[in-house]
Amino acid sequence: MTATERISALASPEVWQLARRPHVDIVRRRLLITDSVSLIAATLVVAAICWNRNPRVPMVWALIAIVVVWELALVWRSSRHADVLGAGIEEYRRLADATVATLLVACTISVLFGVQNVSRLVLLILPIGLFLLAIGRWTNRVILSREAAAGTTLHRVLVIATTERAHELTEQLHRYSTAGYRVVSTLPEEVMAQSPMVVIDDATTKGADTIVVTSGGTQSNNWVRELGWQLEGRDISLMLSPVLAEIAGPRLSVHPAEGLALIRVDEPAFNGPTRAVKRLLDLVGGLLGLIILGIPMLIAAAAVKLDSKGPVFFTQTRMGRDGEPFRVLKFRTMVDGADSMRDQLREEAQTSGATFKLEDDPRVTRVGRFLRRYSIDELPQLFNVLGGSMSLVGPRPHPVDDVERYDVRAHRRFAVKPGMTGLWQVSGRSDLDWDEGLQIDLRYVENWSVSLDLALLAKTITVVARGTGAY
């Protein structure tokens, strides 16, 4: 095929139809509607609360202004961008970033112009609105998952990688189907020895709108650059899967050095002001949690006491930040003395990972099974959070015998405080094996931020409500 024939073929209506992404536009319009409804609903709730106490027209205009700023912040953070729809925690992180930006703008306007009672309105509407936005995004992910099961996905992917890496990437994309990526074709790395048009032709024929190139020994930077040039104007995205893929964008920066483009990786912000803000979030969240969940905790305590013999609470030595031991507090969900059976059950289960957990553990009581399913047994750890040995968000603390089985990578979990919830918990809970969970925990440790913690807290509510993956 000559160059002229190739250009004519790529410009044909059939190929153009394959390259379009109509479903992305549908999902983005759906999110625009759900986001708008969420913000309007939050506004109406706050207006109803405040109007009954102090009916004033300026308050209504202030609420409308907050919603407008919030919607602009959602656009500014690209919260409905095709690349983050249904993709991991990043979508929720952008919601949290937009919410924090709205808070800062509202407070700035209040101070500069002397507008009264704006702070009270903001403190009311932002938590309600963020919760509703998160519910809307979770609902959209449920819909995306069902659409993916029916064969409709956001992105059709062509992968260029070794056979092993292509299989691994295909499995990962299939497992997280809500991200909307489905592999429709794979090409070996040897294709980099040929013209990039070979890859583009294959992508066009298979209807792929995304090309993923993974790192490998035979990869040519010049070839990838030329591929990027050839993709201009074709509505096909180019994505790279390097070793640094687990590190978030804010920690990566390009620094030119004598004509070379070097990627700088900044150290994670484990200390300083961000840690102080995280501690403040723990204190406020812990106190609010005890106030809101106090009565459910009393009911759970009574149920544990009536269901089986033994104490209401279960304490166990676990390893915290920097490997320091502490006593974790939980509602007892197993028969009294269950810890003495742990070694025998671990040996019978023959688990390969460091952690030990049975889906059908014979030690779990009737009430305990219910408490575990909805993570109610973890609520007493709010006292650990207030005491400073745990955080609201972080890797889950493991018992001493699990820690003794850690490898070098796993010890990286000790860089931050353990948490009541975390990225592992919202990504599959106990349904994930040790290696998958460890990789997710390390991703959190390397990239943690206040906005990420807020996003994880919001997502935890929806994950716990489903009650899946916990036993």
Describe this structure in words.
With 471 residues, the chain is of the alpha/beta class. The chain has 3 domains: 22-148, no CATH class; 154-241, Rossmann fold; 273-466, no CATH class. The protein has 17 helices and 10 strands. The strands form 4 sheets. A 4-stranded parallel β-sheet has the order 2-1-3-4, sandwiched between helices. A two-stranded antiparallel sheet has the order 5-6. A two-stranded antiparallel ribbon has the order 7-8. Strand 7 (313-319) and strand 8 (325-331) form a beta hairpin. Helix 3 packs antiparallel against helix 6 (118-149), helix 4 crosses helix 5 (90-113) and helix 8 crosses helix 9. It is globular, with a radius of gyration of 25 Å. The N and C termini lie far apart (59 Å). Mean pLDDT is 80; it is low at 1-20.
Notable characteristics:
single chain; alpha/beta; Rossmann fold; 3 domains; four-stranded parallel beta sheet; 17 helices; 10 strands
Q: Can I get a quick summary?
A:
With 471 residues, the protein is of the alpha/beta class. Helices cover 54% and strands 12% of the residues. The longest helix has 35 residues, at 273-307.
Q: If you compute it from the alpha carbons, what radius of gyration comes out, rounded to the nearest whole angstrom? A: 25 Å
What's the number of extended β-strand segments?
10
Total of helices: 17
Structural class: alpha/beta
User: What string, H for helix and E for strand, traces the elements in order?
Assistant: HHHHHHEHEHEHEEEHEEHHHEHEHHH
User: Uncertain segments of ≥5 residues (pLDDT<50)?
Assistant: 1-20
Largest sheet entry: 4 strands, parallel
